[in-house]
Amino acid sequence: MKKAIFLVTSLTGVKKLTFKQKVASLMNDQVKVTIILAMISFDDYEVARHLIQSLFQANQLKQLNVVSLATLMADEPGIDIAVAEQFKNDFKALPAHRFEATNALERTTIRYIKNDEIVAEVKTDSNEVPLLETRFDNHQPVQSAVYEAGKQFGILNYQDGELAQALLLNQQGQLVYRFIRHTHQVNFAYTMGRSSKLAFTELIATEDEEHHVVYQESAEQSYYEVVGYQNYDRFNTVYAFYANLLQQVVVADTGLFIDLNDGPQLTPYLPQQLIFNY
User: Fold this and answer.
1) Could you tell me which residues are beta bridge partners of residue 218?
2) In angstroms, rounded to a whole number, what is the distance separating the alpha carbons of residues 146 and 155?
3) Do 20 and 48 meet the contact criterion of CB atoms below 8 Å apart?
4) CA distance 94 to 179
5) β-strand partners of 225
6) For 84-114, what is each residue's pLDDT tens digit?
7) Contact, 17 vs 25, CB < 8 A?
8) CA distances to 38, 43, 199 from 194, in Å
9) Which of 24, 200, 230, 243 would suit a FRET pair with 61, their CA atoms being 20 to 30 Å apart?
10) Residues near 217 by Cβ (< 8 Å), separated by ≥ 6?
11) Residues paired with residue 133 on neighbouring β-strands, in sequence order
């Protein structure tokens, strides 16, 4: 293995001890490591970069190649964004309050006020370059613009305070991919022996034919559909999208490392690919 690619789909993955250990081990073996930040919440990219900087020494960081979906899609063709979906930052003429960062993971924040309420917020880096601009309505985020090196690469749309859609842009500001959040109900059943000391106090127990104690629960889970605007591909899950991306960037003599939690969803889309977990 001469090269290794780590697919990161959450901040939790970056915080795993196994992530740090495997990246460091590969670099010690002179393997060239690329970390792909592929979170759908694009505002997590900047946080992930700072977490990575805190995990490794300066000489190790020089060996690391950290890229994001924005980097990989910068030159992909797209379509013009509809006017109704564009982010409008016309709030900058409003009265503002500035809050300086107090630690390395925080950012300078400027909050804009109208009728005594916060209607927008801008986070900047140490050079006053915007990283994230967010508009609020009734104290809930409704839309954000995300920046990398001062250039907008993403738009996040919220519904009831939850991320509903994420729009990934190319370097011309055109729409390349749309990530659409859906929800569905998932049923769980926990079966255990009558002598088990584990109990779910908030659930009502039933009994099956073998006299096992059974607890049943239902929960709402979210998943993402992805639409590509190069040729109007539609991916039913984000893992199908990830697999399509990895098939383009993983070449011979390259090891692929994915979060153990992503394994059951992602590996069926890559049946011929040797995959390592972290």
Assistant:
1) 187
2) 6
3) no
4) 32
5) 180
6) 999 999 999 999 999 998 876 789 999 999 9
7) no
8) 44, 47, 10
9) 243
10) 187, 188, 189, 190, 200, 203
11) 122, 145
- C-alpha dihedral (192, 193, 198, 200), degrees to nearest 10: 50
Residues 6+ positions from 267 with CB-CB distance below 8 Å = 275
Instruction: Quickly tell me which residue has 């954000």 as its tokens.
Output: 144
- Pull the structure tokens for residue 11: 């901040």
Q: Residue 236, CB half-sphere, CA atoms under 13 Å: how many?
A: 3
Write out the two tokens for 41: 């919440």
Opening angle at CA 138, ends 96 and 99, nearest 5: 30
Using alpha carbons only, how large is the chain's radius of gyration in Å? Answer: 22
CA 226 to chain centre: 14
- Which pLDDT tens digit goes with each residue over 141-195? 999 999 998 999 999 999 999 999 999 999 999 999 999 999 866 665 556 565 5
Report yes or no: 275 and 263 within 8 Å, Cβ to Cβ: yes
**For 38-68, what is each residue's pLDDT tens digit?**
999 999 999 999 999 999 999 999 999 999 9
